[in-house]
Design brief:
- The protein is built from 17 helices and 25 strands.
- By secondary structure, the chain is α+β, with helices and mostly antiparallel strands.
- The longest helix has 28 residues.
- Keywords: Aminoacyl-tRNA synthetase, ATP-binding, Ligase, Nucleotide-binding, Signal.
């Protein structure tokens, strides 16, 4: 198969014949199902290990292949300090904490078991909330006709730079371009790893509004069919030139919810409800103090009338858009003819929403809480909440210690605490301490022969390193131990949120002039100020400072305000920041 390269919008909108005239177009040639790799990306590398060095090169250029699959850094060596190079620190932590590795296609990422377990924790919480709010899970195909994208003009305009097309299948040119329903976005994990015998031209899904509307049109006929509220867990693909693991890759995992309603008011209520679900997850589970608000017109999702967002401040003070909820109005329903008969017998177009969070949230957790010792996980989403490290020297000591830690594990497991024993004999206790600190496990229990004799343990906190974070002489008596561990886990959860909130608040500056905004942004901070200027002025700010309007926060100060850019009256303050 030929290399993959992204065509221009004009090319995407041109007949298929034009595609044949362009050298090396962006296309996926789908062969018969021989289960061989489908493609390599233009300039892509072969198999290579995930390391801080290779990850940095992956972000900025096309790295050469590397035969060594082992990370160049491990937790045994210190990671790059955050204050020295935040990006290198981030890549070091991903490698050393064994969260992810590179896929064979440039820009893709393999999520390793520990990293995927964090994503599963996000899924488990949100799945419950989605069902509590009346949504059902289902799945849509990853391949959709390109003509679906063309039906909604602003949608194709917004996504065309990120689309991938399938134009050849079974050795023949397809009759119609199709969008491969895998979002080619700024984050990826796997880019169509295998080939299949297909006879149409497809687009790789960048998002599912179009295919959803095609199906909604077949399912919705009467007001009795509304509201229709569904969610899917899927992979999506969007073409990205600069990638960053978890934050921005060719393919990524996400959930996307889609709903249809009889009125605008119902759709607006739904969009606000779902952004609130995301906010609660961020605060209560991920311990990330997001700011909730409305996007500016320039930052609104392509095809939506309003976009709501949760914005998080990372450890380098850049903003991360951690989740969005869109009120789509009737834009897609009019384009696809998605209508229902109301109670008066009149045909009406449905009102719709869509909303999503992705594996980008994992990157947000790393960059919000991690320190120079590695990852630091909030207990409620930590795959392992307690690591038990047994310590012994002789065979007799080993038997006594292992019997004790086995009993401890059973006690904690029955109390619904996620616990693991590291009983490997190839590594020293100190090595294990460093390893599990790198992986961000909230609590460590140390058990040696003396502890067994005293029927007590030592408990160490990940968020407070050294002796200040240690509790000595904690009784092994089940009720005492369980109470102590649960109390410490809740303290860590609260402490991480408080720490992140304090950091965020100390780095948001209120501004009353454009010069003050430029100064705040130059210092790496967020700027908050009254805004009623034009879209053109918004573009000017971005061009001159690199900052964008992250949102108009829901929480607004009272009183009269004047736009710091124009001096005209302003109803709202906006938050500006550089972002991922």
């Amino acid at each position: 198969m030929g290399a993959l390269r992204l065509p221009s919008l004009a090319l995407l909108l041109s007949p298929c014949k034009s595609l044949r005239l362009v050298s090396r177009p962006l296309l996926l040639r789908l062969r018969p199902s021989t289960l061989k790799p489908a493609a390599s990306v233009s300039g892509g590398a072969g198999s290579r290990g995930l390391s801080s060095h290779s990850l940095a090169k992956e972000e900025s250029s096309l790295p050469p292949p590397s035969a060594d699959r082992k990370p160049s850094l491990s937790y045994e060596g210190s990671v790059t300090p955050r204050s020295v190079d935040f990006n290198a620190w981030y890549l070091d932590v991903i490698a050393s904490a064994e969260l992810a590795d590179y896929g064979p296609v440039r820009g893709t990422m393999v999520i390793r078991p520990y990293g995927y377990a964090i994503w599963e924790a996000i899924q488990e919480y949100l799945n419950v909330k989605f069902k509590e709010t009346g949504h059902s899970n289902m799945y849509f195909p990853q391949f959709i006709p390109y003509s679906f994208i063309e039906k909604e003009a602003s949608h194709v305009e917004g996504f065309s730079p990120e689309l991938a097309l399938v134009t050849i299948g079974g050795g023949k040119e397809l009759e119609e371009k199709l969008v491969v329903h895998i979002l080619f976005n700024k984050s990826t994990h796997f880019l169509l790893p295998y080939c299949f015998h297909i006879f149409l031209v497809w687009q790789v899904r960048p998002t599912s509004e179009t295919i959803v509307n095609h199906m909604f049109t077949q399912w919705i006929h009467s007001y009795r069919d509304l509201p229709l509220m569904i969610n899917q867990w899927a992979n999506v693909t969007r073409w990205e030139m600069r990638t960053k693991p978890f934050v921005r890759t060719l393919e990524f995992l996400w959930q996307e919810g889609h709903t249809a309603h009889a009125t605008l008011e119902e759709a607006e209520k739904e969009a606000l409800q779902m952004i609130d679900v995301y906010k609660k997850f961020a605060y209560e589970q991920a311990a990330i103090p997001v700011i909730v608000g409305r996007k500016s017109r320039a930052e609104t999702f392509a095809g939506a009338i309003r976009t709501y967002t949760i914005e998080a401040m990372m450890g380098d003070r850049k903003a991360l858009q951690a989740g969005t909820s869109h009120n789509l109005g009737q834009n897609f329903s009019r384009a696809f003819g998605t209508q229902f008969t109301d109670e008066n017998g009149q045909r009406q177009h449905v009102w719709q929403t869509s909303w999503a969070v992705s594996t980008r949230f994992v990157g947000g957790i790393i960059m919000t809480h991690g320190d120079d010792a590695g990852l630091m996980l909030p207990p409620r989403i930590a795959p392992i909440q307690v690591i038990v490290v047994p310590i012994w020297k002789t065979a007799d000591e080993k038997n006594g210690v292992m019997n004790a830690v086995s009993s401890l594990k059973d006690v904690l497991h029955k109390a619904d605490i996620r616990v693991k024993i590291d009983d490997t004999e190839q590594r020293t206790p100190g090595w294990k301490f460093n390893f599990w600190e790198m992986k961000g496990v909230p609590l460590r229990i140390e058990v040696g022969p003396r502890d067994v004799a005293n029927e007590s343990v030592v408990v160490s906190r990940r968020d407070i390193r050294g002796k200040p974070g240690k509790d000595f002489g904690i009784s092994m008596e089940p009720s005492v131990l369980v109470t102590h561990i649960k109390s410490r886990l809740e303290e860590i959860q609260t402490s991480l949120l408080q720490r992140a909130t304090s950091f965020r608040d100390s780095n948001v500056v209120d501004v009353n002039s454009y010069n003050e905004l430029k100064e705040a942004i130059a210092q790496g901070k967020w700027a908050r100020g009254p805004w009623s200027a034009s879209d053109a002025e918004e573009v000017k700010v971005k061009e001159e400072t690199g900052a964008t309007i992250r949102c108009f926060p829901f929480e607004q100060p009272q009183g009269q305000k004047k736009c710091f850019m124009t001096g005209n009256p302003a109803d709202e303050v906006a938050i500006f920041a550089k972002s991922y």
